Amino acid sequence: xxxxxxxxxxxxxxxxxxxxxxxxxxxxxxxxxxxxxxxxxxxxxxxxxxxxxxxxxxxxxxxxxxxxxxxxxxxxxxxxxxxxxxxxxxxxxxxxxxxxxxxxxxxxxxxxxxxxxxxxxxxxxxxxxxxxxxxxxxxxxxxxxxxxxxxxxxxxxxxxxxxxxxxxxxxxxxxxxxxxxxxxxxxxxxxxxxxxxxxxxxxxxxxxxxxxxxxxxxxxxxxxxxxxxxxxx
Length: 233
What we know:
The protein is mostly helical. The chain has one domain. The chain contains 10 helices and 5 strands, in the order H-H-H-H-E-H-H-E-E-E-E-H-H-H-H. The strands form 2 sheets. Strands 1-2-5 form a 3-stranded mixed sheet. It has a two-stranded antiparallel sheet with strand order 3-4. Helix 5 packs across helix 6 (about 110-140), helix 6 (about 110-140) packs across helix 7 (about 165-180) and helix 8 crosses helix 10. The longest helix has 29 residues, at about 110-140.
């Protein structure tokens, strides 16, 4: 089982968002960081695969989160720099590109990829929430305005979410996490990193059948919550 990064680093609230944003420096600093990040991320991902203590693994995931978040944020911005205003962002595409840029696949096997995507899912969710909150504060357009989420390797029913709906989705996932943390994590891994059911089972140390059951129940619950949110708009 691969523990996720601890709540003190990845809790989705404004104060944690500020902590992560502090890791984003100037252009010169970012260039230097990107050149160093590949070896650092590869080392951390490899280390997580060799650790058996959950507390130690969670601490390593915290370190990985602080490296992955600013890189995902920059990639998301660069991804759409040449696109038209209002372009739809696909989070799984950004996470995949980050993996290719930040991990030396010659040194990391399929388990290393799973470790990276387990952290990348939460980092990508934080990027989306931070962007949606910033747009709400500024009341200005520009950049990506919609998000299209995936279920594993295919598109989900959650296509073309606007920024308000992204925040509604995040709030629903937070409510689900209070009711059933495992189901909330499954949705996060599927939607924000595009992991397959088999890969989610590997991340969480569960059987494929258990993940399939939780996934089915969680999707029904989430759809009901989102429809309730839409009806109040």
